[in-house]
């Protein structure tokens, strides 16, 4: 005679239907969702023509995007779910939202060219984020590689591509800069920087350790930056966008020096890995005065 299975034993073997999720896993995702809400609000502000609020919402989304990862690492709340949510949020906030803002502002006057420029920027942001996620799994990256991004990061690209909008409100640009065809070309150029192989400064290693005597001045400087941004948002954003673009040649040069110093890697003139011999490259630099 066969015995029926013990129902109590089956219940013990079943996983619990509702598991409690630690708060340290929830808080970083809440920050990401707040960033997403801010990015979507920027779209609404753009439709209503409230450009100051739209730009401010994108800026808030960028700040929150920089915080969610740090909060997750500090609270040891990193998760695969959080990484995927962060990528989707970044695509909406820094790929779709700036493209729609530029289209509603001036690119719509360029007809199909304006829409194509907006599409190219959004697609480039998506490709850049996908490449970034794949690069995280690369075990062969040298330790110094964390100092650089490959291409312009999505938040910086979003704030930089809106430079014509900042200058329009400041009245600091020649009339040809406000032309829709030029803005479309500028949008495509920033899209190229997103998917390019150009190394740009990461900034992730900044702020991990601060000298004790610099803590208070750092607080004062942070308050000053926030106060200036709130008081003069378009001036600060325009200046920041221009300064960021000017740092790209310096980041390329710093990256090139580190690659040349690494005996296990080789580099060609455009920053891609190749089979070029390091000694031959060094001799060639000497011949050209590099």
From TrEMBL:
- What are the record keywords, sorted? Lipid biosynthesis, Lipid metabolism, Membrane, Phospholipid biosynthesis, Phospholipid metabolism, Transferase, Transmembrane, Transmembrane helix
User: Which residues are listed as membrane-spanning?
Assistant: 21-43, 49-67, 88-107, 113-136, 148-167, 173-194, 214-230
Q: Where in the cell is it found?
A: Membrane
Q: Which domain of life is it from?
A: Bacteria
Entry similarity comment = Belongs to the CDP-alcohol phosphatidyltransferase class-I family.
Q: What is this protein called?
A: Phosphatidylcholine/phosphatidylserine synthase
Instruction: Pinpoint the CDP-alcohol phosphatidyltransferase C-terminal domain residues.
Output: 214-249
Q: How does it sit in the membrane?
A: Multi-pass membrane protein
